[in-house]
Amino acid sequence: PYKWVKENTSDKLMDTACRNEYFTFQIAVFASTKTLENIHATYEKSGFNVTCFNLEGIDSKGNPFVKNVHVEQGKIQPLWFGVDVPVNALPGWHYMNVWITAANSGPQKVEVAFYVKKRILEDRGDSELWRHSRLRWLNSTMGIDDKVVAPYKPLQVQQHTITASTGTVTLNEAGLPATIKANNLAVLRRPVDFIIETDAGKEKLNTTPLQFTKKTGGKIAWESVASNDQMQVTCNGVMECDGYISYSFKTYFKKAITIKDIRLELPVKKKEAQYFMGMGLSGGLCPQTYNWKWKGPQDACWIGNTDAGLYCELRGASYMGPLLNLYHPAPPASWYNNNLGGFNISTSGDTVITSATSGERSVSAGDTLRFDFALLITPVKKINTRQQFLNRYYHNGKMPAPAESDLQSGIKIINVHHANTVNPYINYPFISTDSIKAFTTRWHQKGLKVKLYYTIRELSNQAAELWALRSLGDEVLADGNGGGYVWLREHLGNHYRPEWFANITGYGASDAAILTSGDSRWYNYYIEGLNWLVRNTGIDGLYLDDVAYDRNMLKRMRKVMDKARPGCIIDLHSNTGFSKGPATQYTEFFPYINKIWFGESFLYDKMPPENWIVEVSGIPFGLMGDMLHAGGNPWRGMVYGMTVRYPWYTEGINCDPRNIWKVWDGFGIADARMVGYWDKNKLVTTSDSSVLATAYVKNNKILIAVASWAREKVSVKIFVDWKKIGEQPTKRMSAPFIEKYKDAARCDKKEPKEEKRGT
Question: In this predicted structure, what is the pLDDT of residue 756?
């Protein structure tokens, strides 16, 4: 930095700090004559806890680690240090020596002296970005524990049966599910099986008794060991309070043998295996047979219906977040097996078997293979239709504030995007916290909630910690070929990847983001930042747009938000651009979000009903959603209780939901019971299978949403099961006028009504 050049170098540093401050400073290591290997730092006479963020830390899972840092000849490596000044520190001068050592060079001493003032910083200095006190957030473990996460109840164990809020699992001696129940429905036809097959057939293993290794309300863990004269298989399983089950199978080979296949089989009852998505297939009806080889961003699947289902993800890759356009890792090596592995579906009688296979391979004595996978019972929660119909979203990126007249439509939640005057900088809202707090306070007074765009995938160049993060190499900021906005070229030079760029209208500033790496300590910073935002600005939750982190982060986020401000809301947005559908990639998030907004690049007019129900509606998972692309299809959307968000306009296309909301309010849909065409005890049907209907029942009234997937005009009759409703049949129904949606009409008992396609 020019400041260092101007002031010359020194082996002494003097500064001031406050009591309770997290005090930070830099030391630069210059490799003047040779490459310096394995840099270390030690502290003499410090009296306080000292950390060098470049040399050590705590990862996103809460595990401590040490970094091996080299400095190439002619290069400078900044080292960022943090000193934890206690609140009871004695005012006055404090001294310490920092010794910097390389494996191939002698130690160098830097004398550090700082004067501690009497002033106490209640927030450690976090409200003043220039202090860089927030660097300690990189090593935070906030939210990492085995506690129960709302809204789930503590797990219960009785013998080998584990009961969660979403279902029940009974384990066999091998540690695998013998039975899985969701909504009291048995999902499996027979136990899940992990099979090792040789030329002699399926290997028979002798199993030791199952042992539980952890029992808490939020997490149950177990271990089972099985062996024969050729191999030993150790199964480690963990079930969490939301019905998520993770497995690791470690296979140690005692002899050199040829493996024909190692595979995971999920035998699902055909009655429950109505729909399928993933492994190269968009959401739809479950095929009788299917074969797939590793390709594209796919590593998971879901099979089930709206009452019960099972999600499965094959794990073990270097990156385990959602497979977005920015992160395309190699498949899990053990499952992939040089593309000999794959996935298939077969049907036999009343059983649908999904098989993840790894194919043939030869192993030597002493080899170990590890196969990881995870299961999730669905639905993950009970659908809350009341919240769907009451919590209407205002979502306008450039103009986050609604007009006073907009409040009459019943909007209740404002999503504040980035690149506007309230929240200008992508994923770094800390520069504009005053404007965010003022905005939130204003709309709270009017009875609305405010949620903020805040994720991780890319980071604004306006981040105060940019240079500290840059000094960490590619740990937080991803490597790349540089380029992009001129500021990035001038200041960063290379070894970065440019992403989002925006000129902030009305703000007089630009935002040039760069790509972050995958799992890193920035996750810990993000959690602390979220806690700080909720407590200091009053936001009511987050709007997530194609995030890169995994479900462990969602759990931490939910714990932090619920503690700081109970009732916080998370909605998740994604598109179809990078996979066959975002529902597969984000299923493991569903226990901890409130709403989905999957719809960017969705072609609603071309999607069959089974695609709507699985990938758009959220209903099989206990969620509901909104439409997006080109205004969606308002007629079909109403079958699933969906509209677009206001004011999500597309040029030349009407997608204003307010006229439909008026009908909702006139009927009182928030207090109604929703019974869709997918329900086993459906209340309304039609005479044409391509025309579907959903009933909303409230007291002695019924509202029916009818939508057509027919290719041509069709004339249909509507059949209502009045006995199930508990009302006397009516001879006539009326259809209210809804502007730009449909004309008013009356439908007599014996007179069919012709409707245009899509209405």
Answer: 44
H-state helical runs in 538-675: 551-564, 582-586, 609-611, 634-639, 658-667
User: What gap in Å lies between CA 656 and CA 653, rounded to an integer?
Assistant: 9
What does the block give as tokens for 283?
Answer: 């959401």
CB 192 within 8 A of CB 172: no
Gap between the terminal Cα atoms of the chain: 64
392-403 pLDDT, tens per residue?
999 998 899 999
Contact between 79 and 28 (Cβ < 8 Å): yes
Nearest to 168 by CA among 269, 351, 308, 312: 308
Measured CA to CA, the distance from residue 264 to residue 244 in angstroms comes to 17
pLDDT tens for each residue of 365-399: 999 999 999 999 999 999 999 999 999 999 998 89
> Could you tell me the sign of the dihedral formed by the alpha carbons of 492, 493, 494, 499, in that order?
positive
Q: d(Cα 138, Cα 116) in Å, to the nearest integer?
A: 24
The pLDDT tens digits of the residues spanning 580-604 come to: 678 998 999 999 999 999 988 888 9
* Helix, strand, coil tally for the chain in percent (to 5): 20, 40, 45
Round to whole Å and give the CA distance between 745 and 759.
13
What would the two tokens of residue 389 be? 């119909």
Closest CA to 377 of 136, 168, 654, 521: 168
Output the CA torsion sign for 499, 505, 510, 516.
negative
Residue 707 — very low, low, confident or very high, per pLDDT cuts 50/70/90?
very high
Give the pLDDT band of residue 759 (cuts 50, 70, 90).
very low
Contact in structure between 416 and 436 (CB atoms under 8 Å): yes
Q: 232: burial class by Cβ within 10 Å (0-12, 13-18, 19+)? A: middle
CA 229 from chain centre, in angstroms, equals: 43
Encoded tokens for 580: 């066959």
Span 173-218, pLDDT tens digits: 999 999 999 999 999 999 999 999 999 999 999 999 999 999 999 9
H or E stretch at 442 = helix 433-444
Least confident of 43-47, 467-471, 641-645: 43-47
Q: Using CA atoms in the order 421, 424, 427, 432, what is the torsion angle rounded to 10 degrees?
A: -70
